[in-house]
Amino acid sequence: MGYYIEVPEHKNKAEQIVRLYGGRILDIAPDWEDIPDDEAIICVFHNPFFDAAGFAFSPHELAQFKSPDSRLKTWLVMSRKKAEELTGFTGY
Question: Of 2, 69, 9, 83, which Cα lies nearest the Cα of 40?
Fold first, then answer.
């Protein structure tokens, strides 16, 4: 299923996460081991009519998000605690 962050508008979700939740946009897709444990990796998938802001909660989920597809992607990091709160993630 996945875990996603909802924000007020359907488009420009990366910018909304920066503004509302202190996220930081990255230049490239990060590697799992390069991100501190207290930060979360977020991938915003740009679709024609909406963006989807997915929480890469594990190395496996990150690998899935990094898989090539036709969509543009914006990568961010933000507080892991806040990402878990916003997505309802409780662990696995």
Answer: 83
- Report if residue 92 sits inside a domain: no
Q: pLDDT (tens digit, 0 to 9) for every residue of the chain, 92 residues total?
A: 589 999 999 999 999 999 999 999 999 999 999 999 999 999 999 999 999 999 999 999 999 999 999 999 999 999 999 999 999 999 87
Q: Give the DSSP H or E segment for 84.
A: helix 80-87
Domain assignment present for residue 64? The answer is: yes
The answer to the question of residue 61 being in a domain is: yes
Number of domains in the chain: 1
Q: Find the domain containing 48 and state its range.
A: 4-87
In Å, how far are 18, 19, 20, 82 from 64, measured between CA atoms? 23, 26, 26, 22
Instruction: Give the Cβ contact number of residue 21 at 10 Å.
Output: 17
